[in-house]
Amino acid sequence: MKKLLMGAFAVLVGLGVTLTAFAQAKPEVLVKQRQAAMTLIGKYWGPLGRMAQGKADYNAAVVTRNAGYLEVLAKLPWDGFQASTRDVKSRALPAVFDEADKFKEAQQRLQSAVGKLAAASKGGDEEAVKAAMKQVGQACGGCHKNFREKK
User: Fold this and answer.
1) pLDDT in tens, 5-57
2) Exposed, middle or buried by CB within 10 Å (0-12, 13-18, 19+), for 101?
3) Which of 55, 128, 135, 136 is deepest in the core (most CB within 10 A)?
4) Angstrom distances, CA of residue 4 to CA of 8, 9, 11, 136
């Protein structure tokens, strides 16, 4: 029993050290991670955006697959926008940190819009999907307009 308790204690200490290490990620790493998540969002949004604009034929299978990926991806980048990353070179505007509540609202707007898109994609109603795509596009554009440096 004593060995079991000592083993459990060792595991808990190891987890504590690991969690502390993750909590102290370098700012540069956080920026790279959030940029990677945003790149993937762009990859899976791109075909949907082209469909929404009429630049590509509507493909229900692609919409359903990509909307499912986006539903997960839309949750990933936000913990990488920590105050410690403010001075790391990126396209994030100071407003990300200065207007944190508005930035949080923009994140939630995107996640909500993507959730509606994922739900609509399963229903098979092309018009409902296109309306949901429009909301996602507006959420993306609003955030880029207010919180992202233009190229």
Assistant:
1) 555 555 555 555 445 555 579 999 999 999 999 999 999 999 999 999 999 99
2) exposed
3) 136
4) 6, 9, 11, 51
Q: Distance from first CA to last CA of the chain, Å, rounded?
A: 62
Pick one of 3.50.50.60, 3.20.20.480, 1.20.120.10, 3.30.1360.30 as the CATH number of 26-147: 1.20.120.10
Ranges of H-type helices in 53-125:
60-73, 95-98, 100-123
Cα distance between residue 143 and residue 81, in whole Å: 14
pTM over 0.70: yes
Reported as a single tens digit per residue, the pLDDT across 85-137 is: 999 999 999 999 999 999 999 999 999 999 999 999 999 899 999 999 999 99
- Residue 6: its H or E element: helix 2-23
Domain range summary for the chain, segments of one domain joined by +: 26-147
